[in-house]
Specification:
about 150 residues; mainly alpha
């Protein structure tokens, strides 16, 4: 190939390149109508995304408000539970002290009853002594005197 053929091939390729660049990209719908449709579709997508964003923002605000309400209610419930726990603790202490007091009284009562039983058994086992003089006016005297009359 000669030099002139190379120059002609180069010029042909350059002219076709310039023609192709000047013409722009070919679209299926025939030019600028495709770009407008694409822009319109993108605008619709943007509007849908903005609507979804606004909806989610409202839901987020509602959820945060509900969380705040529940948090306040939880704090109130905790305070009420703490007060109730303190009241029950005081009541348990009072009942325990009362139980201990009655348990002490019951123990003293049992001790006194045992002492009385022991005294009675001692008196019964000892019986009347033969050397002990009978006292006038005692029930044993009354029985013996009435029995002899």
């Amino acid at each position: 190939m000669t030099r002139s053929h190379k120059v002609l091939g180069f010029l042909l390729v350059a002219v076709l390149g310039i023609y192709g660049c000047a013409r722009g990209p070919a679209t299926a719908s025939g030019g600028s109508g495709g770009l407008e449709a694409k822009v319109q579709r993108l605008e619709e997508d943007f509007r849908a995304a903005a609507a979804a964003r606004d909806s989610f923002r409202q839901k987020l605000l509602a959820a945060e408000e509900q969380q705040g309400r529940l948090q306040r209610q939880l704090e109130q419930d905790r305070a009420a539970a703490a007060q109730e726990r303190e009241a029950l603790t005081a009541q348990v202490k009072a009942r325990t002290a009362e139980r201990d007091h009655f348990q002490t009284q019951y123990g003293n009562f049992l001790r006194s009853i045992k002492e009385q039983i022991d005294k009675a058994e001692t008196a019964m086992n000892a019986g009347p002594s033969p050397a002990a003089p009978a006292v006038a006016g005692t029930p044993t005297d009354a029985i013996t005197t009435t029995g002899t009359n």
